[in-house]
């Protein structure tokens, strides 16, 4: 059975000029999801708009909202309002829906992650459409997804989705900003994110949101590693979702998964949690990691950040490209002392002999494709250099 996550951004729900909810867009999206659900496609909706709706209710311009507490209060006002609209429309269509609010804290906790996953599974079995948003009213700066593109990717990974649809007011990913460059071409399919060649021009979107094309590519990078295809397409034509699933590549941009086989539950969770640090490894170690081998200290060149044992980290090659993520067996303090050393030297260096492996192979999940040559992956740190088109999200 096909399972999809559909994310709709604030700019697709809130009229930027009038500052009001676009009911026609919301209704059209709901009607499409109900039709898909009736055809046996399991659907989860990730919706932005809580803060934007709160601003709308109080007549506040989003750009004037700077304090965290102010934003959280507006989210509390807006979330009930926007969920009421979804419930009214779904109910009118005879479709049960449910609300799920998540924070990074829920994802980082393995037990809460399992509970959330189990809740999604039960709702989908009952043919209910979950409506998901970040719980802005309680999330702190340190525990925020930051944008609902990232949240939608985390949900897609959690539920083992086949497709992630990022609905936006841009019809596709372009080689340049089409509003200023007449030679810009839409990119229908991206087999490998490493092959992207895009412009650095473009804006961040409407005054009601926080996202852009950068966050969509970041989300696609994570979803792709979990075996989920990602599509960037117009929110004004949600009815095209089915044809895209069936193979139509004339609409939007489809970023293909790097593997058709979804990762095991532990690796799915590793992709979902926020990395606490970075490990940079040499060419030999990178090749081993890409061939599903464990990571040893001898292949580590340097580390960044502070992390504890069993924290998730990014694994980068010498070109600063992210190739994998994993759970470490040593904290950052000890790792700095043993990096580049043989495992037989651990005890003399740090006073004890722990596991030989810095990261076990079964705690490593690749986030880049394997090729005959050394992998050159799209660095998430460099995504800020890519085109930011005209969409946003809470």
Automatic annotation (TrEMBL):
Keywords: Amino-acid biosynthesis, ATP-binding, Cytoplasm, Kinase, Nucleotide-binding, Proline biosynthesis, Transferase. The keyword Transferase applies. GO terms for molecular function: ATP binding; glutamate 5-kinase activity; RNA binding. It comes from the Eukaryota. Residues 277-359 form the PUA domain. GO terms for cellular component: cytosol. One of its GO terms (biological process) is glutamine family amino acid biosynthetic process. InterPro entries: AceGlu_kinase-like_sf, Asp/Glu/Uridylate_kinase, G5K_ProB, Glu/AcGlu_kinase, Glu_5kinase, Glu_5kinase/COase_Synthase, Glutamate_5-kinase_CS, PUA. Transmembrane segments: none annotated. It holds the Pfam family AA_kinase. SUPFAM superfamilies: Carbamate kinase-like, PUA domain-like. HAMAP family: ProB (MF_00456). PANTHER family: GLUTAMATE 5-KINASE. This is Glutamate 5-kinase. It comes from Chloropicon roscoffensis.
């Amino acid at each position: 059975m096909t399972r999809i996550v559909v994310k709709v951004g604030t700019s697709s729900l809130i009229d930027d000029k009038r500052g009001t909810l676009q009911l026609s867009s919301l209704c059209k999206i709901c009607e499409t999801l109900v039709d898909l659900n009736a055809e046996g496609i399991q659907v989860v909706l990730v919706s932005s708009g809580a803060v934007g709706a709160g601003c709308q209710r109080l007549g506040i311009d989003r750009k004037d909202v700077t304090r965290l507490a102010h934003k959280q209060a507006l989210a509390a006002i807006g979330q009930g309002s926007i969920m009421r609209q979804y419930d009214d429309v779904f109910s009118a269509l005879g479709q049960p829906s449910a609300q799920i609010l998540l924070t990074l804290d829920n994802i980082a906790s393995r037990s809460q992650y399992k509970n959330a996953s189990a809740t999604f599974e039960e709702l989908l079995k009952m043919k209910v459409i979950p409506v998901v948003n970040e719980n802005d009213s309680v999330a702190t700066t340190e525990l925020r997804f930051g944008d609902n593109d990232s949240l939608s990717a985390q949900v897609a990974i959690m539920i083992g989705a086949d497709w992630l649809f990022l609905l936006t007011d841009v019809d596709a990913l372009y080689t340049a900003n089409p509003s200023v460059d007449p030679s810009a071409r839409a990119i229908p399919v991206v087999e490998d994110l490493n092959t992207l060649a895009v412009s650095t021009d473009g804006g961040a979107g409407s005054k009601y949101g926080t996202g852009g094309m950068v966050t969509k590519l970041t989300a696609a990078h994570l979803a792709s590693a979990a075996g989920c295809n990602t599509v960037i397409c117009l929110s004004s034509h949600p009815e095209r979702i089915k044809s895209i699933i069936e193979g139509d590549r004339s609409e939007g941009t489809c970023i293909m998964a790097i593997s058709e086989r979804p990762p095991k539950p532990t690796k799915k969770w590793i992709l979902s949690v926020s990395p606490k640090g970075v490990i940079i490894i040499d060419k030999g170690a990178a090749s081993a990691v890409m061939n599903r081998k464990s990571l040893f200290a001898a292949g580590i060149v340097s580390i960044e950040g502070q992390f504890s044992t069993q924290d998730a980290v990014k694994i980068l090659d010498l070109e600063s490209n992210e190739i994998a993520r994993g759970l470490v067996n040593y904290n950052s303090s000890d790792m700095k002392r043993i990096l580049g050393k043989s495992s037989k030297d651990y005890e003399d260096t740090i006073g004890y002999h722990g596991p030989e492996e810095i990261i076990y192979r079964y705690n490593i999940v690749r986030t880049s494709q394997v090729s005959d040559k050394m992998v050159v992956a799209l660095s998430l740190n460099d995504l800020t250099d890519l085109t930011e088109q005209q969409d946003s999200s809470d």
